[in-house]
Design brief:
The chain has 317 residues and is of the alpha/beta class. The chain contains eleven helices and 14 strands. The strands form three sheets. It has a six-stranded mixed beta sheet with strand order 6-7-8-3-9-10, with helices on both faces. Strands 2-1-4-5 form a four-stranded antiparallel beta sheet. The two termini are 48 Å apart. Bound molecules: adenosine-5'-triphosphate.
Length: 317
């Protein structure tokens, strides 16, 4: 059935805080699986996922979830299918990890007998097995984050998890472990929306992303497709005589050197066809040896920079 693959469909979503418009006409379709929601501070990521998790009401817009459930009519059913790790993790410090999870589980309506097994298993999954009977007040920031993650996972019926900055406060080893756990969830058929500023992390767990800026979606799709689209004019080259090559190229076409890393040079040219058609002629006419030539694959960090940082500085000028 059409739309069944989409776990989220947003159309013309608006959200105000007073007079300030935090979401401006956000429309997007998100397929099941791992999805990264990126953007600089204040872009509107938390507002978006707080709406989807039912914690905040939108002012306008249509939301369909899980292939057809209506956000306004089917709220209870939708919330039963959701797990949420908020950015500001809510933890009761005087409770032990086990008791805290029992409480969260009971709030989801899960029976005590079911929870008894699940709580231990989930605490083991997030690496807190040895701390399960200690009060959260004794936990480090990273351990509290793990407990928050356990709280999101306690709803075993969840099909979709929202993780808002899930690795904040964690050391590199902890981050890596949590990312592996999140990847395991996808293998189990779960979907998640992963909000983060740490782009290499997003790249590690998500194939599809949306980039938000100032309350709008500025790009979305598969990371490699976004890269191809944005990098089609970028080339990386290694030759025996760089200066000569760029002198000769510049006689025929305008180009900009964007990166100069020892032997390799990256350059941008508005007419990529010219480069493809003429590069072999120019090197052979000038006795230059061509060791390496490719169109550049952008990392998620570079895509983000092109769409958000470079765009903002060109608007300022
Ligand atoms: P961050 O990465 O810093 O968490 P974000 O992309 O999650 O940012 P939001 O928290 O959704 O962004 O905020 C979007 C905009 O709405 C920001 O300009 C923020 O200042 C504003 N905003 C968020 N919550 C409120 C609130 N309760 N009252 C007023 N303005 C708010």
């Amino acid at each position: 059935m059409k739309g069944q693959d989409n776990i989220i469909e947003l159309e013309h979503l608006f959200r105000y805080y007073g007079n300030f418009c935090a979401l401006k006409d956000v429309s997007i379709k998100i397929k099941r699986g791992a999805f990264g929601l990126l953007g600089p501070n204040g872009a509107g990521k938390t507002t978006t996922i707080s709406i989807l998790a039912g914690l905040l009401k939108p002012h306008y817009g249509t939301i369909k979830m899980f292939g057809g459930l209506d956000y306004y009519k089917d709220g209870i059913e939708i919330r039963q299918k959701i797990g949420f790790l908020p950015e500001r993790n809510f933890i009761l410090l005087n409770l032990t990890a086990r008791k805290f999870l029992m409480l969260i589980g009971r709030l989801y309506g899960i029976s005590k007998s079911e929870l008894k097994n699940d709580v231990d298993e989930i605490l083991k999954f997030v690496g807190l097995n040895e701390w399960k009977d200690k009060p959260a007040a004794k936990f480090s920031g990273g351990m509290r984050q793990r407990l928050g993650l356990a709280g999101a996972l306690i709803n075993r019926d969840a099909e979709l998890y929202f993780f808002d900055e899930p690795t904040s406060n964690m050391d590199p080893i902890g981050r890596s472990e949590i990312l592996d756990k999140i990847k395991e969830l996808v293998k189990l058929g779960k979907s998640f929306i992963y909000c983060s500023h740490i782009l290499p992390e997003v790249e590690r767990v998500c194939n599809n992303v949306a980039i938000m800026n100032e309350g709008q979606i500025v790009a979305s799709g598969k990371i490699n497709k976004l890269s191809q689209k944005l990098a089609k004019n970028l080339f990386k080259i290694k030759v025996s005589d760089q200066n000569l090559l760029f002198d000769k190229l510049s006689e025929e076409i305008e180009l900009t050197i964007t990166n100069d890393q020892e032997d390799y040079i990256t350059f941008e040219c508005d007419n990529p066809e010219f480069i493809f058609k003429n590069i072999s002629r120019i090197v052979s006419e000038n006795n230059i040896k061509l060791y390496h030539f490719e169109t550049v694959q952008l990392t998620l960090e570079e895509i983000f920079k092109k769409l958000v940082v470079d765009e903002e500085s060109s608007n300022e000028n």
